[in-house]
């Protein structure tokens, strides 16, 4: 013990006498029979349940709505309204306009009556989002503040705290420049001590003194002044200073889904700058597109660009009637969803058709150079004239010329992409990687993976130059040939040898496309925002054809058709068919004028054309084509719409009388087949003569026989290959979806039966059956079209939900089928690997649908019973107004019945499963006989005409959905509850809209929803709870699935609190808790599930109001059972005020009135008291939940006012009792400090869990191994409980919560509570404050760097030792290590290691994360943590003042004083700011003034520690700290003199403290201490009241003595490097204090410590024996008892008896010699 610093030595010394175990406290607060209910986790698998204590069962909650109504007048209404008025709804239905990229939304052409399906699609794409907002959520700045990003402005408001440790670090370099010179002290060594003191101290300048230090002030006034001083400049929000906790446990964060929007992949901007060849003789036309070689797929549409000069454009003026500005674009924005190194940009060059093969036409470009001059120049002029002639005659026809591939591998950094995907998978875990990676995540990954090789410093683009082109080959023009060429090109350069190349120049600029591009056009030629008026050339967005499915629902109207003519076989045709072109037209009829201008033009021409021509391959009867014809499909298609292909032979030679075109034949393709868009590949026959009338009504392959018959090429065989592809957000291109939509529309509008659906005709009688069949078959549709049309599909299904129809005079109900189809759709979307999920497992597509798209389906209006078929406007497409349901609601209000708002279903607890089964069966029976008949009750007035089925009655969507969830069975039921979040969110949004539409005059929560609906909700909650329990008790636990369902249920009830009767919801929560407790057999799992559930509920924006935090105890409802504490008042102290004491206990009244908080505290208490595997994680969760709540209150702008915070703190007072109970479990920061020094690392959870917390002996002392009779029970008979110790982080989080409550609670209330507490409890509070001081000690700015280096070095050392051990071993391990040591493997540690060494990599990362911080960030962190340490210690000081003030009248104040001093001394031993030290010393002075007599008589040990700490601060380099310490030390001397007429004891303790300080303290500064001694001397000289007493003389004598000790110190420092001389000096110093045994003992102890550090144990033992002999001699002089040793002689005799010891003869000899000396020296005593 002698070797420990006194502060640490006495850390828990006083706990031995205190009754401070959790069990004892419960004897005071709980009834006697409750002590036996400690939770026992029964691990045997045969036991299905747990034995739970009584307090774990939830109490009956208050009738919330009734309470508000009855107590409204007595409530603090203003306070309640500040945090949200109760009469208003929390939810607000908002209509948010969609963000439109284009200046005008994409719409069908005007003036056309749309089909119902097209109209629905368009309406879905343009209507506003309907979003249910929370009025108060988001207004709070809590979330943004808690994130580190927003702290950057906060730190500017903080005051910089000054710490001595940092000022010492700053001054160290200068201090080390040379040794401190104390010449004055050294020079006077020959003089006596008085002379030295007089000469030295009086020559120094004293520090400024405190005014009015010795003025007579009453203790109360002194305390009041101190309190006022402490209250100034305090930080209002404690949690703003506390580091934000890791969000691992933050289950209450429900991410807002991404808004549905048009899919855009990774975008690149390609600008075509220049196109030139060796000779410029004619116009050339470029087009570019993207191709994926690996997938053998064209992945973008074509972009056409005209780079010709005005001269060459003039060649074609006759064939260019107009030029649209949109056709002049020279830059294109390509989109790539799936980047790959196999993507090529292919540029194709065409020229005007002319006579000759491609090779002949290309030859001049290869052999002639413009630079040659002479004959070359003449040839070029001749060629130019020839080209101009061809342009005038054949200007509208093209021929292939050349092409060039450009690899984009360097732009798509695929290795980065793969690595980042792997990182994501390793982060979220292998099993859930597929689930967690949403589409947006993968999109962001690929965006990061998309990189550009920069060209030049700071540039963000790359310029590419192509210097040669491959000549096109007439017989190899197809895309198949192109992919072969590209594959060869990628593999080797053989392609360049095989294919002739043409020298030329194509200059491109490629860059990442910025987010916003000015003057850009969509693929439909719509201008994109921003589109300036004074625009230049536009940019064009190029439509992507992704290689794989992209699962993003349609949000814009798009209706494009791409036609790809591929091959024509006229090999057996007449010789005239050689130069073949195809004219392609989109026809709406059969006459020539029916060609529609819907074909997108190419470059430098009109925007839309009526016809286009394919390129001509000279003298080829079976040409291949590579054209892409892009068509804007009309919104309304009819059977007359078709593609017409006209085949011509083009005469290249100009002959007299011959036309350019010679007709060869026709072919066509109807756009619709069975009213469905035709897409795919076709091989069409070609008619050689004019087509007969009505040809377009049939397909070319199946034309009925005509008269005269049609003459066909090749006998009606297919000779023309074509591919048609549609990119449409209107045409589903899926049979199942097509049928479903068609049948739905037949119900909604007047149709004539039978109706045609695909290739079948459906009569009215078969309509119901076919519709049900189509609903069932929806899940057979392909996933991609289902996702693309997801919003419309779900809208239609929900429409069928609430709209029972009369079909053919018979009622038809599709609700069940529609519901099951929704369930199957949800299941397939959740189980698809390509679709993303959020952290709660919610499918992103469904989440965004519910959040943005879903709205209540409005039933169709009744058709008129008589009269003509009047067409009524469809009410679904009216703007969704706030009063749209007002007419109906007035009738509903009349039928509304008052509800008891109590969902209690069962009396005694039967097995929960049986309970649910009985509930389910009763519900189904009830519904089958009543509810369904209700919906069909009004079919008696069905009209006689059955031309249009009509809705029968209005259902409410939320009621129907809840009913379907209740009556579902089998796999449907299982799926519903597996993905319950979706149905819960649908319910909530539909309920919010229903409430929004209600008549506001009668909108009481109790009467909003029918009793039947409430019953359904109760059943759903019970069934879901059973499902959760069933998953958790399965042999193969499905914990993750259970957690997801648990979180979904919690969010559901969270939302219901904003909509329904809150008392009803509270009862649901109570049933959930009871049901889970009854079914689970693992305690940590039970608490964990309930904790997550409650944490979500407690994150409600009106959480405080829901807990009735503003209600006083008088306004609370009568408790159904008496307070536990009130039953036990006899065991409390007789003067304890029961009412105040109960505020700090978790009583049944509290748990009833503050229902949610009571449940949360119950879980925390249970978690802290529990045992078992995994409980440490659960305890962390519980503390994290409380911490999160308090943090949100502290940072909530609504809680800024102090009076509000007082009320909030009062709500959390029972937490104080729980923390006091958990005292033995708290992490002991004082022990950690002793183990690790000041720079202790926090470490990970696992490391901290492994370290011991509070010392076992100390824990026993706290738990109380003592005899105390309370209520007739012997507490020592209680078995000692082995606690689960909390780790450092959990303890720190708990401590900050405790301090927040102490800071914000009503201080008067705290004092009253303290005054009424037994001394045992007060001592426990002081123990808690002691831990708090060490917990929030300031670690300094540089500590993070030091710790990082230590951790890194330690991990490397451990690894090195382990490697050495393995290397010495044989076998596989040794061999592996030897391989690792071979050259080539010796890379940077942790980056290229075998799996076994990955932990080192983790260590390295953790250690160096802090090293990466900038100096500014480190300064900011130090500023905040310095303010936190100051504020935390000031709160602790406030609490100690409260204890001092409250305990003035107590009998036990002597022991309390020791406890308070112990905490103060601990705080003085820590690194503190000058702000705190100023207040701490002020408190100390008040304490000395108030309890001086007790301090000097009773608290001798504490007084000694106090002297040492104050003296240490007297040597501080900080002027203000020295000034405060000097004043305190002087006051200590003055009051000790006044109390005992001399201050011999204080004098002795100060002298011993200085001697101890000199021997041990490293940062001790004698120069500042001498200045402090001079200041104290000045106080003594200026103290007029004491001048008549011997006090000033005694002070001066003491100071001289201290000065002489300092003189010895200087000499010791001179011999610091010479241990023998140092010890000799210390021995002489000790010997010189023969007249002062206390000082002599101190120096002997210092010597013993120095010897021990040098491992000179014999010498250390001699010092201690010498000290013991001194004490024995001293005792023998004072008292004469037989049990005491007879002075130092006893030690001599004892040693002589043991002299013959064989092991240590030399030790005995040495001791004998020393004792002979000692006997003589002791005679001086």
Brief digest:
The protein is an alpha+beta fold and 1725 residues long. The protein is built from 65 helices and 33 strands.
Task: Tell me the layout of helices and strands.
Layout: H1 6-9, H2 22-29, H3 64-71, H4 77-82, E1 91-96, H5 116-126, E2 129-134, H6 142-146, H7 151-154, H8 164-175, H9 183-187, H10 193-201, H11 219-231, E3 266-277, E4 284-292, E5 297-298, E6 303-305, H12 310-315, E7 331-336, E8 343-352, H13 358-367, H14 375-394, E9 398-407, H15 414-428, H16 433-436, H17 439-449, E10 461-471, H18 479-491, H19 494-498, E11 501-512, E12 520-521, E13 527-528, E14 539-541, E15 559-568, E16 580-587, E17 599-600, E18 608-609, E19 611-613, E20 629-632, E21 642-650, E22 661-670, E23 672-673, E24 676-677, E25 680-684, E26 720-728, H20 735-748, E27 755-757, E28 760-762, H21 764-777, H22 783-788, H23 790-801, E29 805-807, E30 810-812, H24 815-831, H25 844-853, H26 886-895, H27 912-935, E31 950-951, H28 957-967, H29 970-978, H30 980-997, H31 1005-1008, H32 1011-1033, H33 1039-1056, H34 1062-1079, H35 1083-1098, H36 1103-1106, H37 1124-1127, H38 1138-1143, H39 1148-1153, H40 1155-1169, H41 1175-1194, H42 1202-1211, H43 1213-1221, H44 1229-1236, H45 1245-1250, H46 1256-1263, E32 1269-1270, E33 1273-1274, H47 1288-1304, ...
Parallel strand pairs: 7-14, 12-14
Antiparallel strand pairs: 1-2, 3-7, 3-11, 4-5, 4-6, 4-8, 8-9, 9-10, 10-11, 12-13, 15-20, 15-26, 16-19, 16-21, 17-18, 21-22, 23-24, 25-26, 27-28, 29-30, 29-31, 32-33
């Amino acid at each position: 013990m002698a070797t420990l610093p006194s502060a640490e030595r006495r850390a828990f010394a006083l706990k031995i006498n205190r009754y401070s175990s959790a069990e004892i406290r419960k004897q005071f607060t709980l009834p006697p029979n409750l002590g036996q209910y400690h939770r026992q986790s029964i691990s045997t698998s045969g036991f299905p349940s747990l034995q739970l204590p009584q307090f774990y069962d939830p109490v009956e909650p208050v009738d919330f709505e009734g309470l508000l109504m009855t107590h409204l007048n007595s409530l603090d209404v203003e306070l309640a309204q500040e945090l949200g008025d109760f009469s208003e709804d929390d939810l607000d239905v908002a209509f948010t306009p969609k963000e439109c990229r284009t200046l005008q939304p994409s719409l069908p052409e005007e003036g056309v009556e749309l089909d119902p399906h097209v109209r629905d699609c368009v309406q879905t794409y343009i209507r506003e989002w309907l979003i249910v907002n929370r009025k108060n959520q988001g207004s709070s700045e809590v979330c943004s503040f808690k994130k580190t990003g927003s702290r950057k402005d906060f730190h500017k408001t903080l005051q910089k705290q000054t710490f001595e440790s940092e000022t010492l670090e700053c001054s160290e370099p200068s201090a080390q420049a040379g040794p401190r010179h104390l010449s004055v002290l050294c020079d006077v060594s020959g003089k006596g001590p008085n002379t030295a003191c007089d000469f030295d101290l009086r020559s120094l300048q004293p520090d400024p003194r405190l005014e009015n230090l010795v003025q007579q002030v009453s203790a109360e006034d002194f305390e009041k002044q101190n309190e006022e001083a402490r209250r100034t400049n305090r930080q209002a929000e404690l949690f703003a200073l506390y580091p934000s906790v890791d969000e691992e446990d933050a289950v209450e964060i429900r991410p807002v889904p991404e808004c549905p929007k048009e899919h855009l992949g990774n975008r690149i901007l390609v600008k075509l700058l220049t196109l030139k060849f060796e000779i410029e003789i004619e116009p050339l036309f470029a087009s570019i597109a993207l191709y994926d070689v690996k997938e053998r797929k064209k992945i973008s549409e074509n972009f056409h660009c005209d780079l010709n000069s005005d001269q060459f454009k003039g060649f074609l003026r006759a064939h260019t009637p107009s030029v649209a500005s949109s056709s002049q674009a020279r830059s294109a924005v390509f989109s790539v969803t799936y980047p790959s190194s196999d993507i090529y940009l292919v540029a194709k060059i065409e020229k005007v058709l002319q006579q000759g093969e491609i090779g002949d036409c290309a030859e001049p470009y290869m052999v002639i150079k413009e630079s040659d001059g002479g004959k070359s120049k003449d040839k070029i002029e001749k060629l130019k004239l020839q080209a101009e002639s061809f342009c005038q005659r054949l200007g509208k026809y093209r021929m292939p010329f050349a092409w060039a591939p450009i690899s984009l591998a360097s732009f798509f950094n695929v290795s980065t992409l793969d690595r980042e995907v792997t990182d994501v998978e390793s982060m979220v875990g292998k099993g859930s990687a597929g689930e967690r990676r949403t589409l947006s995540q993968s999109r962001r990954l690929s965006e990061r993976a998309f990189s550009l090789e920069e060209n030049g410093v700071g540039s963000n683009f790359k310029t590419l130059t192509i210097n040669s082109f491959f000549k096109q080959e007439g017989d190899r023009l197809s895309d198949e040939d192109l992919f072969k060429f590209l594959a060869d090109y990628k593999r080797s350069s053989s392609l360049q040898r095989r294919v002739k190349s043409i020298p030329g120049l194509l200059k491109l600029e490629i860059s990442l496309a910025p987010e916003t591009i000015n003057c850009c056009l969509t693929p439909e030629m719509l201008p994109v925002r921003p589109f300036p008026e004074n625009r230049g050339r536009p940019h064009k967005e190029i439509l992507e054809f992704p290689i794989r499915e992209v699962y993003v629902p349609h949000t814009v109207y798009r209706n494009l058709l791409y036609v790809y003519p591929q091959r024509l076989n006229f090999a057996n045709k007449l010789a005239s068919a050689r130069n073949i072109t195809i004219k392609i037209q989109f026809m709406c009829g059969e006459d020539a004028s029916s060609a529609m201008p819907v074909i997108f033009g190419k470059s430098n021409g009109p925007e839309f054309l009526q016809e286009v021509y394919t390129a001509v391959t000279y003298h080829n009867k079976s040409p291949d084509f590579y054209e892409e014809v892009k068509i804007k499909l009309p919104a309304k298609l009819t059977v007359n719409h078709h593609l017409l292909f006209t085949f011509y032979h083009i005469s290249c030679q100009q002959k007299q009388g011959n036309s350019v075109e010679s007709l060869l034949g026709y072919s066509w393709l109807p756009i619709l087949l069975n009213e469905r868009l035709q897409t795919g590949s076709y091989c069409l026959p070609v008619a050689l003569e004019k087509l007969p009338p009505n040809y377009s009504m049939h397909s070319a392959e199946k034309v009925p026989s005509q008269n005269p018959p049609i003459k066909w090429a090749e006998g009606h065989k297919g000779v023309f290959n074509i591919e048609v592809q549609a990119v449409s957000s209107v045409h589903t291109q899926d049979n199942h979806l097509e049928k479903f939509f068609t049948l739905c529309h037949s119900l909604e509008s007047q149709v004539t039966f039978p109706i045609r659906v695909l290739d079948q005709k459906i009569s009215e009688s078969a309509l119901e059956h076919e519709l049900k069949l189509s609903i069932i078959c929806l899940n057979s549709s392909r996933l991609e079209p289902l996702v693309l049309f997801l919003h419309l599909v779900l809208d239609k299904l929900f429409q069928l939900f609430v709209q029972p129809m009369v079909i053919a005079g018979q009622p038809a109900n599709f609700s069940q089928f529609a519901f099951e189809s929704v369930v199957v759709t949800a299941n397939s979307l959740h189980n698809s690997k390509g679709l993303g999920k959020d952290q709660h497992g919610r499918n992103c597509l469904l989440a965004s649908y519910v959040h943005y798209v879903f709205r209540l389906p409005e039933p169709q209006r009744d058709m008129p019973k008589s009269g003509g078929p009047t067409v009524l406007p469809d009410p679904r497409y009216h703007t969704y107004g706030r009063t749209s349901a007002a007419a109906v609601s007035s009738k509903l209000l009349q039928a509304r019945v008052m509800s008891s708002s109590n969902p209690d279903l069962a009396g005694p607890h039967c097995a929960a499963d049986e309970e649910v089964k009985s509930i389910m069966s009763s519900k189904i029976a009830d519904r089958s006989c009543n509810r369904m008949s209700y919906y069909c009750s009004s079919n008696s007035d069905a009209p006689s005409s059955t031309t249009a089925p009509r809705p029968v009655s209005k259902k409410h969507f939320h009621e129907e959905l809840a009913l379907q969830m209740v009556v579902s069975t089998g796999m449907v039921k299982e799926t519903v509850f597996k993905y319950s979040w979706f149905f819960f969110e649908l319910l909530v949004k539909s309920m919010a809209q229903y409430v929004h539409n209600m008549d506001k005059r009668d909108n009481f929560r109790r009467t909003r929803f029918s009793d039947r609906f409430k019953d359904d909700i109760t059943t759903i909650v019970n069934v879901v709870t059973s499902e959760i329990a069933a998953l958790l008790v399965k042999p193969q636990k499905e914990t993750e699935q259970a957690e997801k369902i648990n979180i979904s249920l919690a969010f559901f009830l969270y939302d219901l609190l904003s909509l329904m009767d809150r008392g009803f919801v509270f009862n649901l929560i109570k049933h959930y808790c009871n049901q889970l407790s009854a079914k689970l057999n693992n305690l940590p799992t039970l608490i964990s599930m309930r904790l997550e559930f409650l944490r979500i509920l407690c994150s409600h924006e009106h959480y405080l109001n829901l807990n009735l935090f503003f209600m006083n105890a008088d306004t609370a409802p009568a408790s159904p059972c008496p307070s536990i504490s009130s039953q036990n008042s006899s065991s409390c102290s007789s003067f304890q005020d029961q009412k105040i004491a109960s505020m700090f206990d978790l009583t049944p009244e509290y748990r009833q009135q503050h229902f949610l908080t009571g449940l949360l505290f119950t879980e925390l208490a249970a978690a802290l008291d529990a045992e078992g595997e995994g409980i440490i994680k659960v305890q962390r969760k519980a503390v994290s939940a409380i911490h999160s709540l308090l943090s949100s209150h502290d940072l909530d702008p609504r809680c800024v006012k102090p009076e509000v915070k007082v009320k909030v703190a009062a709500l959390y007072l029972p937490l104080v009792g729980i923390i006091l109970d958990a005292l033995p479990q708290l992490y002991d920061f004082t022990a950690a400090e002793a183990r690790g020094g000041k720079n202790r690392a926090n470490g990970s959870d696992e490391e901290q869990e492994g370290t011991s917390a509070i010392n076992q002996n100390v824990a026993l002392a706290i738990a109380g191994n003592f005899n105390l009779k309370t209520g007739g029970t012997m507490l020592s008979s209680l078995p000692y409980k082995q606690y689960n110790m909390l780790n450092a982080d959990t303890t720190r989080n708990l401590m900050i919560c405790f301090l927040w409550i102490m800071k914000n609670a009503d201080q008067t209330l705290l004092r009253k509570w303290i005054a009424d507490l037994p001394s045992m409890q007060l001592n426990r509070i002081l123990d808690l404050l002691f831990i708090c001081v060490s917990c929030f000690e300031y670690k300094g700015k540089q500590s993070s760097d030091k710790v990082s280096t230590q951790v890194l070095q330690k991990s490397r050392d451990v690894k090195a030792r382990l490697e050495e051990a393995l290397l010495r071993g044989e076998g596989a391990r040794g061999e592996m290590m030897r391989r690792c040591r071979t050259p080539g493997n010796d890379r940077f540690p942790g980056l290229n290691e075998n799996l076994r060494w990955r932990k080192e990599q983790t260590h390295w990362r953790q250690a160096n994360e802090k090293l990466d911080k900038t100096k500014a960030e480190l300064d900011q962190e130090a500023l905040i943590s310095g303010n936190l340490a100051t504020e935390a210690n000031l709160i602790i000081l406030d609490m100690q003042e409260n204890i001092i003030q409250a305990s003035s009248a107590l009998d036990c104040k002597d022991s309390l004083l020791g406890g308070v001093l112990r905490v103060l001394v601990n705080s003085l031993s820590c690194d503190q700011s000058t702000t705190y030290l100023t207040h701490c010393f002020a408190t100390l002075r008040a304490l000395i003034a108030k309890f001086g007599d007790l301090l000097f008589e009773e608290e001798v040990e504490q007084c000694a520690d106090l002297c040492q700490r104050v003296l240490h601060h007297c040597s501080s380099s900080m002027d203000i700290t020295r000034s405060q310490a000097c004043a305190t030390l002087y006051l200590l001397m003055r009051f000790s003199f006044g109390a005992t007429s001399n201050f011999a004891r204080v004098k002795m303790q100060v002298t011993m403290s200085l001697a101890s300080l000199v021997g041990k303290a490293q940062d001790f500064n004698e120069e500042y201490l001498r200045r402090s001694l001079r200041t104290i001397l000045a106080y003594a000289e200026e103290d007029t009241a004491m001048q008549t007493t011997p006090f000033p003389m005694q002070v001066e004598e003491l100071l001289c003595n201290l000065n002489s000790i300092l003189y010895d110190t200087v000499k010791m420092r001179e011999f610091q490097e010479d241990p023998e001389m140092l010890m000799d000096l210390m021995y002489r110093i000790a010997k010189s204090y023969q007249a002062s045994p206390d000082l002599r003992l101190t120096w002997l102890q210092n010597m013993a410590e120095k010897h021990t550090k040098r491992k000179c144990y014999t010498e250390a033992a001699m010092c201690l024996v010498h000290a013991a002999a001194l004490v024995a001699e001293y005792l023998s002089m004072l008292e004469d008892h037989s049990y005491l040793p007879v002075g130092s002689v006893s030690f001599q005799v004892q040693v002589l008896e043991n002299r013959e010891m064989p092991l240590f003869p030399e030790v005995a000899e040495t001791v004998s010699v020393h004792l002979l000396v000692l006997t003589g020296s002791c005679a001086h005593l």
